[in-house]
Amino acid sequence: MLIAQITDFHISTSEGEPERLYGTSGHLKRAVAHLNALSPAPDLVLATGDLVNEGSAEEYARLKALLAPLAMPIYAIPGNHDAREPLRAAFIDDGYLPADGFLNYTVEDLPLRLVGLDTYKPGEVGGLFCDERLAWLSARLAEQPERPTLIFMHHPPFATGIARMDLWGLENAVALGAVIARHGQVERIVCGHLHRPISTRWNGTVVSTCPSTAHQIALDLSGDPDSIAVKMEPPACQLHLWRPEVGLVSHTSYIGDYA
């Protein structure tokens, strides 16, 4: 089973800053073409948040048009630039999102169980996984303790060393870690938000972040919380290959030609 991950598209209106500065819609169009051309083809795509930039219905309409040529199913969760109800309205007909409440869900009919988590905190750059969401996750993981599981969410629950982004991390991550530590079937947690490929061991599993399909956050390990910059490093997706006899192995696939 091959799972593709794309993240942090930041689709805006044609006049929006991400479009003017970074050409985000063109980047997403190329990412979709890249995924469609892969051999073997991914079985599905995870979209791990910041799908649009302001959370407006107009942006989601542009997003859906850009994703329409994708040849495989896509499963979306919100990031801090999204808005819960417009995202729900845009993707509800795909059949996996709950009709109300948080945008948490499971995908059950695959060799690897998928659990999508909603870390959105309205009005904040950082995320939150509150007690209600923790209880939901704990119950879902307890249902199938022997089944290999991949969790996908926007905000990474660990400190990356990029100080400014760490200020915008995940609130209540310690409590989330305690839930994860009780459930050894969690093979991986994959995230967005950082616009970089980063991985670490965390509470008995591995957590990783995926590069953006467009612009990246500059790698700055100086510890300066006032330092942040965008770099037009190559856009990328990640490919997570699941084989029961091996486990989950992840690759970064760059989008574009680099002779």
Number of strands: 15
Total helices: the number is 7
What coarse outline follows from CA principal-axis ratios?
A: globular
Query: What distance lies between the first and last C-alpha atoms, to the nearest angstrom?
Result: 29 Å
Q: What portion of the residues fall into strands of 2 or more residues?
A: 25-35%
Structure overview:
This protein is an alpha/beta fold and 259 residues long. The chain has one domain: Purple Acid Phosphatase, chain A, domain 2 (4-Layer Sandwich). 25% of the residues lie in helices and 25% in strands. The chain has seven helices and 15 strands. It has helices at residues 17-22, 24-37, 57-67, 84-91, 131-143, 163-166, 173-181; strands at residues 2-6, 44-48, 74-77, 105-107, 113-116, 127-128, 149-152, 170-171, 186-191, 198-202, 205-209, 216-217, 230-231, 236-243, 247-254. The strands form four sheets. The protein has a six-stranded mixed sheet. The protein has a five-stranded mixed sheet with strand order 3-2-1-14-15, with no helix packed on it. A two-stranded parallel ribbon has the order 6-8. Strand 10 (198-202) and strand 11 (205-209) form a beta hairpin. Helix 2 packs parallel to helix 3 (57-67) and helix 5 packs parallel to helix 7. The two termini are 29 Å apart. The mean pLDDT is 97.
